[in-house]
Fold:
Amino acid sequence: MAVNLRNRNLISLKHHTPEEIMYLINLATDLKNKKRAGIKGNLLDRKNVALIFEKPSTRTRCAFTVAAIDEGGHPEYLGKNDIQLGHKEDVADTARVLGRMFDGIEFRGFSQKVVEDLAKYAGVPVWNGLTDDYHPTQVLADFMTVRENFGHLKGIKFVFIGDGRNNVANSLMIGAAKMGMHFVTCAPKELFPSKELVAECKKIAEECESGATIEITDDPKAAVKGADVIYTDVWASMGEEAKAEERKKLLKPYQVNMKLIKATGNDNVIFLHCLPAVKGNEVTEEVFESRYARQFDEAENRMHTIKAVMVASIGNL
Ligand code: CP
Ligand code: NVA
Structure:
């Protein structure tokens, strides 16, 4: 059956099938080629999108803004002190008001429940631009970058090393389970992903018959052996600033340095990072600037994939 994502939310990736995820990556690739060819689009002509940000952002905010404008849409940035949400107005009322005016709503913030409630009440598509639990639009860009480098996703050994229970690690595990990757989370035991999510991802792999495997380990050297992708993220996410020093001690053995890259035994391994990076913590300057690094292709792909998400759900296709 042809994929149809019209009016669909993007809340966590859990509700998207492998075919739908691949459709978004293919559409993003077409849109990237279109932009490179200098073709001005009108797929979001007369579409207004609300961009709610409780937490700061460079890539996600700019990706939604540029993507909307590229295709003739209008993005409206609503920072945490600009609107009544969280101060004078609750989520359900904000959602119903914005849903009367906008064609789609992006939300970045703390609580996953808020993005789910926005989706419940808005009556227009809601896209999760990062919560404490998940970062689904990031994973679309990450997988697009993997495909650009290897030509496929199935069978790729993808190692996330660092804070194994953060939003990015969680969403990567869900996506990898759907797309048939060999996914490894490598973290100290204190920062392992929740048992519930690991079990859910294993079940997803089984149900999708994707061939994915999910492994959780605290041994960096063993984890990276044969890896195609080494991925890391900050050791203390937004909202966890008070934990920064404690994490530094805990995560020091999990730093992505040249020794770890070499321990893959794969000279074609690529390094990814959702950014922003704290160089000297989760990754060394040497790896960040090395020939293995693809984080800026990945950052650019945020824009193409986010454009695909909007075009697929509200665009004039
Ligand atoms: N990767 C990412 O989401 O970056 P921003 O926090 O800058 O949006
Ligand atoms: N885990 C990071 C991702 C930033 C894009 C954070 O939540 O701060």
Q: What stands out?
A: Residues 57-60, 130, 138, 274-276 surround phosphoric acid mono(formamide)ester (ligand 1) (CB under 6 Å). The two ends are 17 Å apart (CA to CA). The CA atoms of residues 61 and 313 lie 18 Å apart. The domain at 138-294 is CATH 3.40.50.1370 (Rossmann fold).
